[in-house]
Design a protein that fits this description.
The chain has one domain: 3-Layer(aba) Sandwich (Rossmann fold), CATH 3.40.50.1820. An eight-stranded mixed beta sheet has the order 1-2-4-3-5-6-7-8, sandwiched between helices. It is an alpha/beta fold. It is built from eleven helices and eight strands.
Length: about 325
């Protein structure tokens, strides 16, 4: 049964596909599987799952740069598998996590947004410490990629400080926007749980796509961010619309980002292109504007992400032979 768009039950249900990157279990087979599955301890003692994509030349002895990936609310570690694979083909070690309490199985902490960056930091701890992989990770060359709520996460980990009061004021003035409707449907923000300062100085460069709630970051904190940032905006983003999300980050960073605005793209066009299973399970995530070719866009997007991290992290490893970047 299809519920009306105004139903709070629909809002709660759709959060699993919302800010987002959700890939249900039945659709996982379409994604590029990671080379390793990992489990590591989170900041609250919980076990966090993730995936690792390995670079070529694993036996050449060189330390490889690391890119960690944060998915959107309701997502999982495989939500950006095509981007992870492209980076691995280019010589990076790539590690993505499933955020506890904010994934397709469990949304119990879906509004604890500032708890996500410490989880991402624990992933860096693991990959630069006890991880037993066939290559060595260079702890001085760490990058971060984040989409949607993961974009908020990465903006936080590079130094942005999110002020929950600014979110409350925004939602009081604009209760109709999707993010504010979801906040209301899930009971509102818990200000006692807000952890605004989550910077991790090990992250030397960041790619941020369609970040959530960019308006919440303080001017002072964004001005302090001077590391390289590549920032992406979907011109027709109906989930996190202009000018509340991307523009505040773009305009207030202390170092101007490399900014890309993608004409006719929607919010979900930053996700891995859909196969038949995903089309059947979650058509909302797969719909693009007429004439917009998500698969072609993602080829170019991944190429630009690889180029940016190569330059920003002084990447010099050889790419994989099997699937070179176009």
């Amino acid at each position: 049964m299809r519920l009306p768009a105004s139903s709070p039950h629909l809002l709660a249900a759709v959060l699993a596909f919302a800010l987002i990157g959700a890939v249900p279990v039945t659709a996982r087979a379409q994604a590029d599987a990671p080379d390793q599955l990992i489990h590591f301890a989170g900041p609250d003692g919980e076990t966090i799952e993730g995936g690792v994509w390995l670079p070529a030349g694993s036996d050449d002895g060189s330390a490889r740069p690391l890119v960690v990936i944060s998915h959107g609310s309701g997502g999982w570690y495989g939500g950006h598998a095509d981007t992870a694979e492209a980076l691995a083909e280019a010589g990076f070690v790539v590690a993505a996590l499933t955020h506890p309490g904010d994934n397709f199985r469990d949304q119990s902490r879906g509004l604890h947004l500032t708890g996500r960056a410490p989880q991402l930091s624990r992933l860096i701890d693991y990959m630069t410490g006890p991880w037993a992989g066939p290559v060595t990770v260079d702890p001085e060359r760490v990058g971060a990629f984040g989409f949607s709520a993961g974009g908020l996460t990465v903006t936080s980990i590079i130094g942005g400080v999110s002020d929950a009061q600014m979110i409350l004021a925004h939602c009081a003035a604009h209760p109709e926007v999707f993010a504010c409707r979801l906040v209301a449907a899930l009971g509102g923000l818990d200000l006692t749980d807000w952890q605004p300062e989550t910077r991790d100085l090990r992250v030397k460069a960041a790619v941020i796509a369609a970040p959530a709630l960019g308006l919440s970051f303080t001017d002072e904190s964004l001005t302090s961010v001077i590391l390289p940032v590549q920032l992406w905006q979907a011109a027709d983003d109906q989930i996190l619309p202009s000018p509340y999300n991307v523009e505040p980050v773009r305009d207030r960073l202390g170092r101007a980002p490399e900014y890309h605005r993608v004409d006719r793209a929607g919010h979900y066009d930053f996700l891995t292109p859909c196969g038949p299973d995903m089309q059947a399970v979650a058509p909302e995530l797969c719909a693009s504007a007429p004439g917009f070719d998500r698969a072609a866009f993602k080829v170019g997007f991944n190429r630009e992400v690889v180029r940016f991290f190569r330059q920003a992290l002084a990447q010099a490893s050889a790419p994989r032979v099997a699937r070179p970047i176009p």
